[in-house]
Design a protein that fits this description.
Blueprint: H1 3-12, H2 17-33, H3 39-42, H4 66-82, H5 88-91, E1 100-105, H6 109-120, E2 129-134, H7 139-146, E3 152-157, H8 193-211, E4 222-227, E5 230-232, H9 236-249, E6 253-257, E7 270-275, E8 284-287, H10 288-296, H11 299-302, H12 309-317, E9 326-330, E10 335-337, H13 344-354, E11 366-368, E12 371-372, E13 375-376, H14 394-401, H15 406-409, H16 427-438, H17 442-446
Parallel strand pairs: 1-2, 1-4, 2-3, 6-9, 7-11
Antiparallel strand pairs: 4-8, 5-10, 6-8, 7-9, 12-13
Helix pairs in contact: 14-16
Length: 451
């Protein structure tokens, strides 16, 4: 059908000719001038080996038998004991000054593969240790992670996952209000193991990283914490150096944040200084010095009735001497979330479009702190007086207060202890630790040495 016929039909139906003309211009622009990105543009050819799962991939539901659970628990305990670091011959051994990037992984392997692709494109990624902390054991996920060759990598496994405890605490207890079938009951514990796992896993993972690795006692590096549905920009480590340096010029900065909702027109060379609060929990980074301070007030994380680890962490920060924790954050996020997109592939395409013409790797960076007539803006962010619920079960409190089972294994760095299995833990020891921390007075907390 030619152009004259289209115009004639449009005029018969009352459509102005100029509308048809504008539509034609739009079609021509989309066809010939609008920038198109091919698959190889956002997944380079040498990284396409990491993209194996399509948007429709899901793990089929399967409940392990008792014997399979026992075998898997032993396997996970052995892997956590060995803590094998790959590719040290190529990139060198890990030292106490090596920075780490830690990824919390569950089952979204389709998005995880694009995170790996983005990490592979980070400049100087070979200088870090990439740690994957899994709450779900599957050979396909493990194979994808173990195929990484662009840096040193290691895998650890959360030992109290729903996969290992499908029908009892800390998984889905049949006596909980929300059973495995999704039905609510009366006179029961109002918890859902499918929701509590994420907060438990985050806390266990951080404890393991700072307390149980071979170099944990003398660790002086920075740890960047990511999720499986994150995507990082190539100048992540470039900005990490600037942000770490800013801590020397601006005393009191303890947290680094690389993530925030994306917006157009944000400066790539600008850092903002303010009190930390969600949603700056994306791409959160800190060192062992801050972790020791957090550990001193761990009960305010573990007893806060909220399923969000971010708001629970904020509640712990209010017990610091300052009443909050200052952070330095990149104004333009270096960690983006793919969870708002239908799939990791869709997110990858959109982010690639956002980055067309982006001015990454700035040579100079400015840090700003906002003030008003009443003083510093955002001088302190307080959490809600009560959490959003879902975390009121005493068993969750006790497990959180002693995530590495140090009451029964002695020194947490003594990896000759039998296993991480909860069944070997004495409940009395648990309660002793919990009571000690829960009964700590306000005066005792303020007297804790945070230096």
């Amino acid at each position: 059908m030619n152009l004259k016929v289209l115009i004639y039909k449009a005029r018969v139906r009352g459509v102005p000719v100029y509308c048809c003309f504008l539509l034609l211009l739009y079609v021509l622009y989309k066809q010939f001038f609008y920038p198109k990105l091919k698959y190889a543009d956002y997944v380079p050819k040498h990284l396409q080996q990491y993209v194996e799962f399509n948007e429709k991939f899901t793990f089929p539901p399967r409940e392990l038998q008792s014997a399979e659970i026992s075998e898997l628990a032993s396997t996970i305990a052995l892997l956590n004991y060995e803590r094998t670091v790959l590719h040290t011959q190529k990139y060198g051994t890990v030292t106490s000054k090596t920075n780490m990037v830690v990824v919390q992984v569950h089952r979204d392997v389709e998005r995880l593969q694009y995170l790996i692709v983005s990490l592979a494109q980070v400049r100087d990624i070979e200088s870090v240790l990439l740690v994957f902390s899994h709450s779900y054991y599957d050979d396909r996920i493990n194979k994808l992670v173990s195929s990484i060759t662009f840096c040193r990598s290691m895998q650890i496994f959360y030992p109290y996952s729903l996969q290992l405890y499908p029908n009892k605490f800390p998984g889905i207890d049949p006596d909980d209000c929300v059973s495995a079938a999704g039905r609510r009951k009366q006179f029961c514990s109002s918890r859902d193991g499918r929701l509590t796992e994420h907060k438990h896993h985050w806390w266990w993972k951080v404890n393991f990283i700072f307390n149980n690795l071979d170099w944990s006692d003398t660790f002086k590096g920075t740890v960047v914490f990511l999720q499986e549905d994150d995507y990082v920009l190539p100048d992540l480590l470039h900005m990490l150096r600037f942000m770490t340096r800013s801590q020397a010029y601006l005393p009191g900065l303890h947290l680094l944040s690389f993530g925030r909702p994306h917006a157009k027109g944000l400066d790539f060379d600008l850092l903002s200084v303010s009190s930390w609060h969600p949603p700056f929990d994306k791409g959160l980074a800190f060192n062992k010095s801050l972790w020791q301070k957090i550990s001193a007030v761990s009960s305010y994380y573990c007893l806060y009735d909220d399923l969000s680890w971010g708001y629970s962490l904020l509640n712990a920060f209010r017990k610091f001497n300052e009443g909050h924790v200052d952070m330095v954050a990149t104004l333009m996020p270096r960690v983006l979330s793919t969870s708002t997109f239908p799939s990791g592939r869709t997110a990858m395409q959109q982010i690639a479009m956002w980055l067309v013409g982006a001015r990454m790797f700035p040579l100079n960076v400015k840090a700003v702190m906002l003030y008003s007539s009443t003083g510093r803006v955002n001088a302190g962010v307080k959490p809600p007086p009560w959490g959003n619920g879902g975390w009121s079960d005493l068993r969750d409190h006790l497990l959180c207060l002693d995530p590495l089972m140090s009451t029964t294994t002695g020194n947490t760095n003594d990896m000759t202890a039998p296993t991480f299995s909860q069944t070997t833990t004495n409940a009395t020891d648990y309660i002793t630790v919990a009571q000690h921390k829960m009964n700590m007075s306000e005066a005792d907390l303020h007297n804790v040495n945070f230096n």
